[in-house]
Design goal:
It is found in: Plastid. By secondary structure, this protein is an alpha+beta fold. It folds into 2 domains: 16-225 and 363-371, 2-Layer Sandwich (Ribosomal Protein S5, domain 2), CATH 3.30.230.10; 231-357, GHMP kinase, C-terminal domain (Alpha-Beta Plaits, 2-Layer Sandwich), CATH 3.30.70. Helices cover 33% and strands 24% of the residues. The chain is built from 9 helices and 13 strands. It has helices at residues 94-106, 157-173, 179-194, 201-208, 243-253, 257-279, 287-298, 305-315, 343-352; strands at residues 16-27, 38-53, 58-63, 68-75, 78-84, 114-120, 211-216, 219-224, 231-236, 320-324, 333-338, 356-357, 368-371. Strands 1, 2, 3, 4, 5, 6, 7, 8 and 13 form a 9-stranded mixed sheet that branches. A 4-stranded antiparallel sheet has the order 10-11-9-12, covered by helices on one side. Helix 1 runs parallel beside helix 2 (157-173). The protein is globular, with a radius of gyration of 21 Å. 45% of the residues are buried.
């Protein structure tokens, strides 16, 4: 579970504290990319930010958790230079600079800076990850001098970080800014960092919480929900995967022929599953089968073969309503929705397979804000 890391810190007049939740795309992997509804649940895993004003023209992002401080010189609405406390050569970090610059461009020129302290729930990363800096740059692009070994659990850490950074800055300097504007700015920054226009459900969940989400012709339709169908369990398989590359292959392979037919089938069963979830009826029937078929025809391990047996065994437990590899699938995690009386049995099955149970549950809420 994610507790507020700043709860024991004495509040300072003028400070603002913000947190944004992670997500799990329970239903709607791939079909969300083609104007179909998806079911995204917000989680107790959160990014927390504490913003304190500073009289100097510098912006500082500090994380005791990751032993790192990034300091930027502010000139009006521009970040003109950077230093990094860990001794490595300063390098651009788009996961920090892009949301900072996006927020600053939305505001009048600042005459003074601010200090940000960042803390992330450890459940965003596998249990064998180690950090000596912000664990938000892929290890393949880590500069020399970093000791950075991280594997994500697929809970939307990038979207959470970007959204929480933008929210804290915008609401500190422009407190009347609407939540819709904050979401738009966060979506923009996230797209810039990712180098593409994504579906947007991860940022939307970080802002609004659990929801049925649809992207259609550039517009986003968000239906907030407050429905819990038992306990959500997430398992850390400690491998991680690159969902972007797999998404491209799946979408390309489903443009015509048998792939197109199977994609349509997945869309149908996903929409039926969401309807069943909302109505309190049986849900999820046929989803795994459709995902497996689409994965076979596109030569992608959406549901990896090494996960099939444990998911089959999980589904067969009395009290389990749904089990799957969430989101785009792959090797990030597995999850299930289970009634309380069957939780221990599911955990035992997963432990036998070497799967760690993530200390996370459905939260339902989006952005949380405290002002002092």
């Amino acid at each position: 579970m994610s507790e507020d890391p700043f709860k024991d810190e004495e509040p300072v007049e003028g400070e603002i504290r913000v947190s944004c939740p992670g997500k799990v795309l329970l239903i709607g992997g791939y079909t969300v990319l083609r104007s179909s509804p998806s079911l995204s649940l917000s989680l107790t895993s959160r990014f927390h930010i504490r913003l304190l004003p500073s009289p100097s023209p510098t912006l500082t992002i500090h994380s005791p958790q990751y032993l790192s401080t990034h300091t930027y010189t502010l000139t009006g609405t521009l970040l003109s230079s950077q230093t990094v406390s860990h001794g490595s050569t300063p390098h651009p970090n788009p996961y920090l600079t892009t949301p900072l610059q996006t927020a600053l461009h939305h505001l009048p020129p600042l005459t003074s800076g601010f200090n940000l302290t960042l803390s992330a729930s450890p459940t965003f990363y596998t249990s064998d990850s180690t950090f000596t800096s912000f664990p938000i740059i892929p290890s393949s692009s880590t500069p020399t001098g970093f000791d950075l070994k991280t594997t994500k659990t697929g809970l939307g850490s990038s979207a959470c970080l970007i959204t929480s950074l933008i929210t804290s800055i915008i609401l500190y300097y422009s407190p009347k800014t609407s939540v819709a504007e904050i979401e738009t700015l966060s979506q923009t920054a996230h797209n810039l960092v990712q180098g593409k226009v994504g579906s947007g459900f991860d940022v939307s969940t970080a802002v609004y919480g659990s929801q049925i989400y649809t992207q259609n012709l550039g517009s986003r339709i968000v239906d907030k929900i407050n429905i819990k169908r038992g306990r959500l369990l997430l398992g850390d398989v400690k491998e991680g995967s690159e969902s972007g590359g797999m998404s491209k292959r799946v979408l390309k392979g489903s443009e015509d022929g048998e792939g197109e037919i199977l994609f349509r089938k997945l869309k149908e069963v996903n929409e039926k599953a969401i309807e069943g979830y909302v109505k309190g009826e049986r849900f999820g029937e046929g989803v795994r089968s459709a995902i497996q078929s689409l994965g076979t025809i596109t030569n992608c391990e959406i549901e990896p073969s090494v996960r099939k047996n444990v998911l089959d065994e999980t589904e067969n437990i009395e009290g389990v309503e749904y089990a799957c590899v969430p989101g785009a699938g792959g090797f990030d995690a597995i999850c299930c929705v289970v009634r309380e009386e069957a939780v221990d049995e599911v955990k035992e099955v997963w432990r036998k397979e070497g799967i760690d149970i993530l200390d996370v549950q459905e939260d339902g809420e989006g952005i949380r804000i405290e002002r002092f």
